[in-house]
Specification:
The structure is a single chain. The chain is of the alpha+beta class. The chain is built from 19 helices and twelve strands. Strands 2, 4, 5, 6 and 7 form a five-stranded antiparallel β-sheet that branches. A hairpin with a 5-residue loop joins strand 11 and strand 12. Helix 5 runs parallel beside helix 13. The chain is elongated and about 130 Å long.
Length: 621
């Protein structure tokens, strides 16, 4: 009873263009897909998708295998009375007429049949039906008895399905299937796939529709149809979740990642509590069905309002360079969501019927599929270009680091050790020729050794901050940040409880990013307060540095900011520098822990990442 729309998808860092496509890469990819899908979120994804697609299969099989009575309950009107329900004929040969109210089947009131159908054991107790069914209908205010033959399902009902819905559902399912096979690890694509699977079940249920004899036979279609209503809520919840993480993760989700569960629980709980409340208000089971339709439309309307607000908020927090990539998708999705709210769900909740056919609203949602495909292609090209550039910079930076280390060893520590060797030889000679001169020579050797040790410590500190091993990431940052601001600098706070043990590469990357971000705040932001947040978000470490300074400048990206981007990219993560809505700047980095752990394991084994393993994609919440 609403138009189906589709949300954004986030494509993480893609594999390098020169990655191999041979059997080795396919084997590695299959292993990774299996490993990812065995994770708790992967298992939940499979369960929900399997349930939605299973319900779809049950509805298709039920209609094709079981006989039908030649009518259907139109979802556009969903007109239930205390003793019957309005039906429409499937085709001209049907004995029913449009507007007939079915009140009894084989001498049993429809209200009693519906009450028995919603009572346990549900589909475990199917009821047989003969080749003919006696149906009592109210037609033009008069009761009319019909003898309805039970015949195979007529394809005329499917032939009347709106083309817009068919194209939308099929195109969305095909596109998301391709995406999830290529990127099964990306949370946004998982969400998109779950939403489309649930939407497919909903489209089929509401387009094919119930028939009165489903209550007489307790057919599996009846219960799959009821599940599709819940799948409809999961679909809208997936869109809200997607818009919270793409194109830039929302701040509230980063600060409180556990709240994401309420995106799904809230509409289901509201619908469940409302269903219980409407049942307790009295009336027949058919009256309850009518109230459930209104309740579902109200909940969907609320979620559509949340989707529209999420689109606006997501676009506002997107950095200016990336807005071009999501502008078309944001506009088409916003237009489709607004049309669905104004033309279908809200009128159904308030008036009892939509203002426009669902097929017309579905046509408005078709551009979302095209915009989604364009966004995927553009985002992939953007990420490939960014990846190639970042890898080139990382290789150059590593080579420069090696050259600097070689120069420091050759020109600094090397001559010092060589001089020490000469002084040791001199002291050895003086032992026999001039014993009194040995003492001053040994003092010089001791001083030179202290200087050499200091040089070694300096080199070691530049390679990996020693405080990380002695204190851990949070305490090492707290110690270092205390010396950055000074008495006239901003007040720096750090919050990083319960981040657990981190891979060494992630610790170094997070340490360098935080130090550089806070240093930029002290030097350029003219801020009074600066807050550092470290949080473990499933398989990623989320780093946020927030200040209340003057905001982002309009000049070119500085060396320090570029270094932060490269630090994040080097461990397979991403970094965003955006303006805070309340003023100031937010530096946000997501560093995947699993990627760093596998990369660390390969480096310890002496192996090199290859093909699709060269860069790990970024996942979201």
């Amino acid at each position: 009873m609403r138009s189906e729309t589709l949300g954004f998808t986030a494509i993480g860092a893609t594999r390098p263009p020169d990655a191999g496509d041979g059997p080795d890469r396919r084997r590695v990819s299959n292993v990774r897909i299996g490993r990812r899908l065995r994770e708790p979120t992967g298992i939940l994804t499979l369960l929900v998708c399997a349930a939605a697609l299973g319900a779809t299969a049950i509805m298709v099989a039920s209609r094709l295998a079981l006989p039908n009575d030649g009518s259907f309950i139109p979802t556009e009107r969903w007109n239930w009375t205390s003793d019957g329900v309005e039906v429409s004929p499937i085709a001209a040969w049907s004995p029913f007429r449009s507007g007939d109210i079915v009140v009894a089947l084989d001498g049993r009131p429809l209200a009693d049949l519906a009450g028995a159908a919603v009572s346990p054991p549900w589909f475990l107790a199917p009821q047989p039906v003969g080749p003919m069914v006696d149906v009592l209908v109210r037609r033009d205010g008069q009761l009319v008895e019909l003898t309805v033959p039970m015949s195979p399902f007529s394809t005329d009902r499917l032939a009347g399905a709106p083309l817009g819905l068919v194209v939308f559902g099929g195109g969305a399912l095909l596109l998301t299937l391709v995406l999830v096979l290529r990127r099964p690890h990306a949370t946004a694509i998982r969400l998109l796939f779950v939403g489309v699977c649930c939407n497919t079940a909903d489209i089929l249920a509401w387009e094919v529709g119930l028939q009165p004899t489903d209550f007489l036979t307790r057919s599996p279609f009846l219960y799959a149809f009821a599940f599709a209503a819940l799948a409809n809520l999961v679909f809208w919840a997936c869109l809200v979740h997607l818009l919270a993480i793409y194109p830039v993760r929302a701040g509230w989700l980063t600060r409180r990642p556990a709240t994401v569960r309420w995106i799904y629980l809230a509409p289901l709980l509201v619908f469940g509590i409302g269903a219980i409340g409407t049942r307790l208000t009295g009336g027949s089971t058919l009256d309850w069905f009518d109230r459930l339709g209104t309740l579902l439309a109200l909940v969907v309307s609320g979620m559509l309002v949340a989707i529209l607000a999420s689109i606006v908020a997501g676009y506002r927090r997107t950095p200016a360079p990336r807005r071009r990539q999501v502008r078309i998708l944001a506009v088409t999705l916003g237009f489709a969501a607004a049309a669905s709210l104004v033309l279908t769900s809200l009128p159904i909740a308030l008036l009892g019927h939509p203002l426009a056919p669902r097929s017309a609203v579905a046509v408005l949602a078709l551009p979302v599929i095209v915009a989604l495909a364009l966004a995927v292609i553009r985002d992939r090209l953007f990420q490939v270009d960014l990846l190639v550039t970042s890898r080139r910079r990382i290789v150059a930076a590593r080579e420069e680091e090696r050259m600097r280390l070689r120069r420091d060893l050759h020109d600094g520590l090397g001559p010092t050790l060589a001089a020490l060797g000469l002084k040791v030889d001199r002291a050895r000679a003086e032992v026999t020729t001039d014993p009194d001169a040995v003492g001053p020579t040994l003092d010089e050797i001791r001083a030179d050794l202290r200087g050499a040790i200091a040089q070694i410590r300096t080199l070691s500190r530049e390679l990996r901050p020693p405080g990380l091993d002695a204190l851990g990431l949070v305490d090492a940052l707290r110690q270092q940040l205390a010396s950055i601001g000074g008495p006239d600098g901003p007040v720096v706070e750090i919050d990083g409880t319960d981040i657990g043990v981190l891979p060494p590469a992630i610790e170094v990357a997070a340490y360098r990013i935080v130090i550089e971000a806070v240093t930029n705040t002290v030097r350029h932001a003219d801020a009074r307060r600066c807050r550092v947040e470290l949080a473990r978000d499933r398989d990623a470490l989320v780093v946020r540095v927030i200040d209340d300074g003057r905001g982002i400048g309009t000049g070119p990206v500085g060396v320090g900011t570029r270094a932060m981007y490269e630090r994040a990219t080097e461990v397979g993560g991403e970094l965003l520098v955006v303006a805070s809505p309340s003023g100031g700047t937010i530096v946000s980095a997501s560093l995947p822990l699993s990627a760093a752990a596998r990369r660390l394991g390969r480096s310890r084994d002496g192996g090199q990442p290859r093909g699709a393993d060269a860069v790990e994609p970024v996942t979201g919440t």
